[in-house]
Design goal:
The chain has 15 helices and eight strands. It has two domains: 256 residues; 188 residues, Nucleotide cyclase, GGDEF domain (Alpha-Beta Plaits, 2-Layer Sandwich). Strands 1, 2, 3, 4, 5, 6, 7 and 8 form an eight-stranded mixed sheet that branches. The protein is an alpha+beta fold. GO terms for molecular function: adenylate cyclase activity. This is Adenylate cyclase 1. It comes from Rosistilla oblonga. InterPro entries: A/G_cyclase (IPR001054), Adenylyl/Guanylyl_Cyclase_3/4 (IPR050697), HAMP_dom (IPR003660), Nucleotide_cyclase (IPR029787).
Length: 516
């Protein structure tokens, strides 16, 4: 497991990165200048040039390094407090966060002053040493120093940005994105493109064009030096392209992978990248979106637990508001026989536990196994609908199969209740198939997704009829006609039903099936 970086390691890394880039740029500049202007200067002038370069390195680099170190050192106090979990005033924390984002610009300021100070420190001694100095030499030296500075500072800027993202931002930004800090000026994506073009395209071309400004006395040397300069220029271009690719590629890859994860349903996906540029708000909005999706999914699950999963899906898929559609459905009513009387004198917690255990098992049978929808709980029973959640033509078969499975499941529950010395449960199941109005019923302030109509009323009456007939499950002739498969059923004599003029023919399980 990778150990977390300490703030001291982070500061050292951030401090060294730009210095290393400047050293590489300075080495290229020295190599380029010494070799390039040699045909234009005398041996004495060459000695003055080398001596001036030595003094520049001895004076400018230490001064620039001290200035840079003093800026980086400003982070030490805050990071030390953060490591010791000490409270930090919000305004002071925001100030140091702003400095972290603007740190590459401080590096540009210090580096530019250092590079520009090299021009008079090298050109003036050459002019003072010999009045016969070729007029092209100061121009070549000045342009080459500026070109080297642009290459070195651009690479240092990109490398420092990467170092800040990797090392310093995680220590300073725990609760907010760097892009939210006021008064910070990160380099934009367009600015990086321009900077890369100057460093990788413009500067190398200028370096090569300058070669034609100076005559080369030896053809072989004139070929070798341009090749060397071109190779070094291509290397610089590749390095800057890699740095910019890291600055662009990492957030793009993270966003792509996160979007794909969300598309697969992984709503706990968050992007933990800290960016001060345009990617910062984009990442923050993406995380805000996933948080919203998680909240909605949690609400959806909670909604589904209260109204039923299929009912929730129907409600969310339908147009909000009152109304419904007429459709043929199979309605089932289930009731526990004598549950109220048997619960008298028993501990309410135990009664509720038994009822929940029963309902949990029956809901699983109806919804998970037989494509039904438990629409509402009715005290010690419930109403279920078949043929509502999808266009299944065999919804009557689903209801009958669910009733048989519920009887079998109840037998298992009763065996468990008996082992716990609890009285067994008996149920009545009534099933009817007919047309009902299915949809959102109620008021504008309170809606309920349900089914209403004669089909629902008849199913309720049929469940009550099970007590008269002495059957566990009864279904009407309307349901029997809709069955697509054979079932082990037997008809009962027509029975009068309250609210219906003619007696109703019902079917029940044969004795062998009922005791299966």
């Amino acid at each position: 497991m990778q150990r977390p970086i300490t703030y001291r390691q982070a500061l050292i890394f951030v401090a060294i990165i730009p210095i290393a880039a400047q050293l590489v740029g300075s080495a290229f500049n020295i190599f380029y200048n010494v070799a390039h202007v040699r045909p234009l200067i005398s041996d004495a002038q060459q000695a003055v040039l080398l001596r001036s370069i030595m003094w520049v390195n001895c004076l400018v680099y230490p001064a620039a390094t001290i200035a840079w170190g003093s800026v980086v050192w400003r982070f030490q106090s805050i990071l030390s407090q953060r490591e010791r979990a000490l409270p930090i005033p919000p305004d002071r924390l925001e100030s140091i966060q702003r400095l972290a984002i603007n740190l590459p610009w401080w590096m540009i300021l210090i580096g530019s002053l250092a590079w520009l100070s090299c021009i008079p420190m090298i050109v003036i001694p050459l002019n003072l040493a010999d009045s016969g100095l070729d007029s092209r030499v100061p121009i070549l030296l000045t342009v080459s120093i500026i070109v080297s500075a642009m290459i070195a500072l651009t690479h240092a800027f990109f490398a420092l940005e990467l170092a800040l993202h990797k090392c310093l931002f995680p220590l300073l930004f725990e609760k907010n994105q760097p892009s939210s800090i006021r008064g910070a000026y990160p380099l934009t994506l367009r600015g990086r493109g321009i900077a890369w073009s100057l460093s990788a395209v413009f500067c190398p071309i200028v370096s090569i064009l300058l070669l034609f400004y100076v005559p080369q006395p030896e053809a072989q040397r004139g070929l070798a030096f341009p090749i060397a300069v071109g190779c070094i220029a291509m290397l610089f271009g590749l390095v800057s392209a890699w740095l910019v690719g890291r600055l662009y590629g990492t957030p793009i890859r993270e966003l792509k992978e996160a979007a794909q994860a969300v598309g697969r349903g992984q709503l706990d996906t968050d992007i933990r990248l800290l960016r001060a540029d345009e990617f910062g708000p984009l990442i923050e909005e993406f995380n805000h979106m996933t948080r919203g999706l998680r909240e909605k999914e949690s609400l959806r699950r909670m909604f589904g637990l209260h109204v039923g999963r299929q009912a929730a899906e129907q409600i969310l898929a339908s147009v909000p508001g009152l109304g419904g559609v007429e459709r043929e459905v199979t309605v089932m009513f289930v009731d526990i026989r004598g549950f109220t009387s048997s619960s008298e004198g028993r501990d309410p917690t135990e009664v509720v536990a038994v009822l929940n255990e029963f309902l949990t098992a029956m809901v699983e049978v109806v919804e998970t196994q037989h494509h039904g929808m438990v629409n509402k709980y009715l005290g010690d029973g419930f109403m279920a609908l078949f043929g509502v959640g999808d266009d299944r033509p065999q919804h009557a078969d689903d209801a009958v199969d669910a009733g048989v499975s519920m009887i079998d499941r109840l037998a298992e529950l009763n065996r468990a209740f008996e082992a716990r010395q609890m009285p067994p449960l008996r149920i009545g199941i009534g099933i009817h198939t007919g047309t009902a109005l299915v949809g959102s019923i109620g008021s504008n302030q309170r809606l309920e997704f349900t089914a209403i109509g004669d089909a629902v009323n008849i199913a309720s009456r049929i469940e009550s009829l099970t007590k008269t007939v002495g059957a566990t499950m009864l279904l009407t002739a309307a349901t029997h006609r809709q069955l697509k498969r054979p079932h082990d059923l037997q008809p009962h004599a027509p029975q009068p039903v309250k609210g219906i003029r003619d007696p109703i023919v019902t079917y029940g399980l044969r004795e062998s099936a009922a005791t299966h």
